[in-house]
Known about the structure:
Blueprint: H1 10-25, H2 30-41, H3 46-56, H4 59-87, H5 113-127, E1 131-132, E2 138-140, H6 141-144, E3 164-166, E4 169-171, H7 177-185, E5 190-199, E6 211-221, H8 226-241, E7 247-254, E8 257-266, E9 283-292, H9 294-299, E10 308-315, H10 316-324, H11 331-334, H12 337-340
Parallel strand pairs: 1-5
Antiparallel strand pairs: 2-4, 3-4, 5-6, 6-10, 7-8, 8-9, 9-10
Phenylalanine binds near residues 216 and 290.
Amino acid sequence: MTTGVSPNSLESIEELRRKAESELANIVTPEDAEKFRLDWLSKKGIVREVFRKVSEAAPAERKERGREANELRDLAEAGLEQRLATLTGGADTEPSIDCTLPGYPLPRGSLHPLMTIRNSIRDIFIGMGFTIAYGPDIESDYYNFEALNFQPDHPARDMQDTFHIAEKVLLRTHTSPVQIRVMELQKPPIRTIMPGRVYRNEEISARSYCLFHQVEGLCVDEGVSFADLKGTLLAFSRAFFGDNARLKIRPSYFPFTEPSVEIDVECFLCGGAGCSICKQSGWLEILGCGMIHPNVLRSGGIDSEKYTGFAFGMGIERIALLKFGIDDIRLFFENDVRFLRQFS
Ligand code: PHE
């Protein structure tokens, strides 16, 4: 043991005492305590060495030296025991951190406005007994078009400018392909919503972007009628836009629904009087929907003689733009914190 201190004289034992005391005072971790034990109290430790020197001392000195050595050993043992008790939370624990100090402020994130809208749409449909399903962003031509009753060269494919990845592989242009995937896996009664990202090769502007989000809805059972479609979407609109929400149903066309309609909600900003958000019309277009085409039920492996159903698809950006009074869709994708912070 290299203490640099020889225990040959009374002075040096005194020095060892002071050294032991200061080392004991510096014990703050269990590792420190163990190091102290090894240095001072183990078989090769300082205390043993002191006793060995005492036994070699001249007989006249031996008694006094022995007393000093005993004191040193008692000090090291008792001191270590006391520090260990402190470390393990013994009676005389002194707090080593001040728990009363105020913490550092941590900046808190918040949900993206699109996710806030998606979550409230989702929660309303969950409240009506719908489940949730997801499908892949990269789709086959089969699920995105063919199974949804788009004929191979039908101009309806041009309604949705498609990003192709490879022959018959593409970025889905809508969430409707998930309808087929759900029908393949589940038997009626089916009540499911399918949120997700969709992609279209459109010119980017304040009104349209190359990707956006939709929530698809699907309901299949025996005897599902157009009245069920209307009732479900009216209940949704009242929950989302307010108890007085009124809907307008306009005929439309989608290959996968027949009849197909688009639904407008009375402008919640001007109450139908006409304003800049509704372009003075008093109405806001919010979704496309219709009764599922029998060909589509068959694509999903469902007996179209026995079952009927409705489907709808709404754009989350469109609803978010309206709800928050935002005039440029690109703001949702730039992730400028000055924009995002306004929604925290
Ligand atoms: N998929 C259609 C679109 O993206 C919306 C829609 C969904 C219409 C379901 C009818 C039924 O425009």
